[in-house]
Amino acid sequence: MNPPTAAATADAYDAIAVVYAQLARPDLDTVALDRAVLAAFAEVARTTGPVAELGCGPGPVTAHLRDLGLDVFGVDLSPAMIALAREAYPDLRFEVGSMDALDLADASLGGIVSWYSVIHAAPPDLPAYLAEFRRVLAPGGHLLLAFFESEGEPVTPFDHKVITAYRWPVDHLAELARAAGFVEVGRMLREPGDGERFRRGHLLMRG
Question: What is the CATH superfamily name and number for domain 4-206?
Fold first, then answer.
């Protein structure tokens, strides 16, 4: 399907891929709560089949999930990001693909991580992404969504450094996921740290 915003997002990330890759890993290394959320996901997903990180960028979260014991691969719409991921982590599988039209069979995944990768989806397009996540996730598999939370406001666009992104109310995003067939397992909100502007949201869902 590839909404118009998807092509613009891919072009924007292609243009800044090298700089972005240099900044991605330190964020994960220094935020204990983010690592804790990923560890919790890894624990529930470890025995349920292969895991895909959708919107993997240059691959640091995919590699972190591998280090947590998961059979994981990455998918991203940006060819430049995938090239950097393959160079940095040659032992892992990375593919170019769109999150709303995945080249995967129905119910073929045991887990999905979307780590700040749906933030650029225009709000009307997000249900299609969630429906595709549900299609490829096996019954009982888990989805982890990380996003910018809107802190009491409605869905709000903001000037992300790469291209326009959106902050979501956690309840609204959870409701959209439920409408797509997911059941909420838990959520974690954390306040912005040094150098961060917005509250971060995390939803763990079961298919």
Answer: Vaccinia Virus protein VP39 (3.40.50.150)
